[in-house]
Amino acid sequence: MPALQGRGVGTLLVGQLQAKAAERGMPIELSVFRINVAARRFYERLGFTRTQDGQTHIGMTWYSPEREQRGT
């Protein structure tokens, strides 16, 4: 929804999802269109890393900081 872009709504929603995933020790996986550079930067800013490269999509994954510290 373009009217809501730049207002922090997406950051808030993804942050809540990350908190729930961290509680459960689960990663978050998603994909974005390769040409959607703004979305890729948004998710990278929130800690997602590129995990798959497809012809039209890029797979991204987020792991909780606690998981990264444990090395699992």
From TrEMBL:
Q: Which stretch is the leader sequence?
A: none
Pinpoint the N-acetyltransferase domain residues: 1-68
Give this protein's Gene Ontology molecular function annotations. Answer: acyltransferase activity, transferring groups other than amino-acyl groups
Superkingdom of source: Bacteria
**SUPFAM superfamilies, per the entry:** Acyl-CoA N-acyltransferases (Nat) (SSF55729)
Q: What is this protein called?
A: GNAT family N-acetyltransferase
Q: Which organism is it from?
A: Stutzerimonas nitrititolerans
